[in-house]
Structures are given as C-alpha cells and as structure tokens.
Amino acid sequence: MSIAAPYPATSPNLMESQPIKDTNEVESETLGAKVWYVVHKILLAIANIAFFLTNPTLYSIGFLIGIIWDKQVQEIIDKIIGLWKTLPWVMAPVTVVCGFLSIQVTLTATSFLFAAHLGSTLSLKAQELLKKEEDKKAVEKAEDSEFDLEV
Fold first, then answer.
1. CA distances for 62 relative to 3, 52, 57, 143, angstroms
2. Which residue among 14, 40, 118, 131 sits deepest, i.e. has the most Cβ atoms within 10 Å of its Cβ?
C-alpha cells in the first residue's frame, strides 16, 4: 500500500492568487451568472455581519490582520480553497465533524478568518485602484508633456 498524493499531478498552483473580479466583467455573462454574483455578495455580507455579531473584538482584529498582511492572508485563503476544490468529498465530512465537535472554536476561528479575508480583499482592491490611478495620472502627464513639446 503506497502513500501517494490524493490529488492529480496537474493540480492548480495553490500559491497563485485569483484575480479580483471587476463588476464590469459580470456584464458579459449570462443572467444566471449575474444573479448568482449578486446573491453571492449578499450572502457574504450577511455572513460577515453574523460573524461580527458573534465576536466583534476578534472580527475587528482579524480585519486588521487582513489589511496588514494582505498577501499572506490571501495565500492562506487560496490554499484552503484549493484544498477544498481538490478534495471536496474528503474535506466536507472532516469539516462538518470537526466543526461540530468544537463549535465554539469553529465560530471564533471562522469569524477571524472571514474578517481577515475581507480586510485582505479590500486592501488588495484598494492597491489595484491606487495603481490604476497612478498609471492614469502618469499617462495624462506624458500626454501633457507631449502636447507642450508640440506647441
């Protein structure tokens, strides 16, 4: 009996972060995808509010941790998601049983993880927007300098 990796050799790189979906990208999708996009955002908002209400202090700390260590938090989230997608039939029962046996710790850890994910996502999105603004200003400045040379 050999102990081999239970996932295929062509598994995705779990360290690679997924790009943040822009709202403009949703326009080209089907109606069902658009509805799911909105429902998914609403469910995440409800989950974040519920986790904040269960433990506001830990949620706030997790949110700050997500902002401070945004790239590391995103790597951890990507690893968890990758593991879940690779082994869903193993992870689901293990998660349910472990979560049931340690419900207080599970709520606390999940609250912390949701807040860290939210802080990380917002931080990365803000960095992307700042970079786009800087690029836009640099292009405008270059165009202005070209115009000054022509005159």
1. 36, 10, 9, 43
2. 118
